[in-house]
Amino acid sequence: MDTGWDAGLDAGMPEVDHAAIVLYRWMLVHGGLSPSAVARAAAETGLTEEECRTAVGSLTETCLVQADGEGWQAVSPQAAGARLLSEPEAALRAQEELLRARRDELQRRRDALTGLVPVYLQARQHSFPQGTIDHLPDQFAVRALLTDVIDSCRTEVLVSKHGGSFPEAALREALPRDLALLERGIRMCSLYQHATRFDPATRAHAERLVEAGAEIRTLPEALPQMIIVDRELGFLPSRSGGALLIREPDLLGYLLDVFHRDWEYATPFATGPQAAHDISETVKESILTLLAKGLKDDSIARRLGISLRTCRRHVAELLIALGAHSRFQAGVIAQQQGLAGARGPVRERTAPAPGPASAPERGAARPADPRTGPPDGPPGCVGCGAPLPVAVGRRSAPGRPALHCSAACRARAYRARRKPGAAGGGRVSGA
């Protein structure tokens, strides 16, 4: 943008050369310069009298020297700057105000257009009931639509996110929305990476959600990012920074299969020293497996959602423990000794029926809780006494045992604990 004053500033702003600086220093020491002292100043500074007169003119133009009777007096650089730059700075402030006003107007128009996204998508759904794929151009549109969709959710929300930690601002924004969702009895299943268990902010966020009735599991490696609402609507990240909105049934079915597959292998979220130790060992097994495949440290760290420094520390510890001399040798030794982690076979799973009962948590193997029943008998729900579901043919995942028969029962227990005057005044033991 051509403001007019900036071109003149570049072309006409006076410069202070070396001779002017030398004379300016002399004038500060001697309290100024008079016409009769020009010869003396020239002799003491090593300049010619003509150079002194030129320097006086340059200093006067930059406001470092001002006339004082027949002579000249040096002034401070701050005072010179205030006199010389006050007008350009005032013009700059005016331009900044104008740009700020224009930016606010553009944002207002953007928000108005973003508000029409739900109208557009609802009309598209009516015109194409068999399903569509739409593109949301940016995060503003994604946030607006996601908030609207979550508020109108009926049965369940499935979330898969990669990364070892999430921004605290995003966690603070999401927590009230997620808690309100659970308060309504909506099932919420989230898949994270193991590394999130070691990030304080993410761990505290997950603990709050689990306490409120959410189901969270973790996996070692990077996950496909997705959000699926009521098995009818999916969000996938777009390379442009926005998202793809999926309504096409076959593609949604594929995404649900991917989520269920990862869910079957994931470890339920639990806290405590033993849980942290188990997850740390799982991460090391994953590192050994990736080392055997020849991956570099930065690639391993990226896939596991951990920092490069943490990855290198684990690699160094593994090399010492295995007596290996190289990263690849450590991976080979681990494979030969059966130390590198590998997924077990997936048990067969029938196609889930719509509704909360079809969420992936149903049928997951869980260790029996001695407080709810003998180890050799069916455990009972601490909320309603119904038997807890027990799966056959799959290793029990480490972590806290289940105490409720369903997410709805767990959510009811959570709401009962939050009511004023509730018996015990706290949470149910072990819930």
Précis, in short:
With 431 residues, this protein is α+β, with helices and mostly antiparallel strands. Helices cover 50% and strands 10% of the residues.
Give a topology summary:
Elements: H1 5-12, H2 18-30, H3 38-45, H4 49-61, E1 65-68, E2 71-74, H5 77-114, H6 117-127, E3 133-136, H7 139-151, E4 156-160, H8 168-183, E5 187-193, H9 200-211, E6 215-219, E7 226-229, E8 233-237, E9 243-246, H10 249-265, E10 267-268, H11 273-292, H12 297-304, H13 308-322, H14 327-336, H15 407-418
Parallel strand pairs: 4-5, 5-6
Antiparallel strand pairs: 1-2, 3-9, 4-7, 6-10, 7-8, 8-9
Helix pairs in contact: 2-3, 2-4, 3-4, 8-9, 11-14, 12-13, 13-14
If you had to describe this structure to a student in words, what would you say it looks like?
With 431 residues, the protein is an alpha+beta fold. It is built from 15 helices and ten strands. It has an eight-stranded mixed β-sheet with strand order 3-9-8-7-4-5-6-10, with helices on both faces. Helix 8 runs parallel beside helix 9, helix 12 packs across helix 13 and helix 13 crosses helix 14. It starts with a helix and ends in a 13-residue tail after the last helix.
